[in-house]
Amino acid sequence: MVTLLRETSLGISYSLNIYRIFLISPTANKEGGCPFVLKAKDDIEDMMTQLSDGHPITHDVKINMFNNYLLETKPKKNQEYLSNPQLASAMKEGTKIVHAAAENNIFTKRFLSGSISTDEYGRYINSLYFIYKYGIMREDLLAQHKENPIIKLAYFPFELTRESSLIKDLEYYYGKDRIAELTDFKNATPAVKAYVKGLKDAAERNPALLIAHSYSRYLGDLSGGQILAKRLKKHVLKRDVINANWDSHRGLEFYHFEHILNHNEFKNLYRQRLDESPVTQYVKDLIVAEAIYSFELNIALFDEIQTLSDSNKLHTTLDLDDVESVDSPIKPKNGLCSNGDWIVGFATGFATFALGLSLYRRISERF
């Protein structure tokens, strides 16, 4: 009984504190705006979550109490469409912090430095296969909701489809015999399953949220992904820029968008479409929040690969020295001859020139 009274009085104390925050908010009398600044909201939420699990005020009641204090902040789902939504710009701005966190992830740093192994990269594209196949690719969720007015504007299955490219890469690193095993969703890792579930949950809540995942993945693949491809060529696949195989996409099909001739022009078009999306402020805010969540899912993916690598639990890839030498013989780039061929060609050319000069002199002497 004493505990109950203590918890109840504690709840009353929290309520009074919430009321004080309401009174002291500097925005309370500004143009009829919401009386709660962001920090005040966080303070209220923190106080609500501090109530013990055994408190007679249930979780649902606590949430309802919180919402009652935030009547002005409750989303108005029937708001008018924004005249200038700038959705892509809002996502770029809203994801800056989590984007930086992704770039500073241990696996990402190792990826950028070119110090990851083929086993780690193989795990990465294996994870991406499930995400694109069962998540945001044309074969699944985006296709199901392609008539959604927001998705429709930025739906480019012909240009962006990645599933077939990922299959080619998996075959390159693991061999065709293992594809069935690697692409069976039963064998997906926990982080991958959580990622796919997050995508499907987003589609159920509001199909427009899928555009946040599409934005973070595709624009990432077309931007930073191209830098990663070069790192892989040089440091992981050991290809030399002076040889013809430098221009080969084998093992890096995922980063090759054969139907996009100019990456920058396409990215600008994609952002423009998003910036013109028919969204309300409520939906716009939801999409930005989902974009942040998308980055968090990717970070979890990176962390999982690093953990699997540290514990030696990655699938073993093929010996790429054999793959490169048998399937992709090294030839000089831009039609240039190898050193041996160059010497032979030079000697042959010089001999031909000498013979021609000798004949010329003999003919000249006769006349």
Automatic annotation (TrEMBL):
The keyword Metal-binding applies. Keywords: Heme, Iron, Membrane, Metal-binding, Oxidoreductase, Transmembrane, Transmembrane helix. The keyword Metal-binding applies. It catalyses: heme b + 3 reduced [NADPH--hemoprotein reductase] + 3 O2 = biliverdin IXalpha + CO + Fe(2+) + 3 oxidized [NADPH--hemoprotein reductase] + 3 H2O + H(+). Pfam families: Heme_oxygenase. It comes from the Eukaryota. Its EC number is 1.14.14.18. One of its GO terms (biological process) is heme catabolic process. One of its GO terms (molecular function) is heme binding. InterPro entries: Haem_Oase, Haem_Oase-like, Haem_Oase-like_multi-hlx, Haem_oxygenase_CS. The chain crosses the membrane at residues 342-360. PANTHER family: HEME OXYGENASE. Belongs to the heme oxygenase family. This is heme oxygenase (biliverdin-producing). The gene is PARPA_10744.1 scaffold 41684.
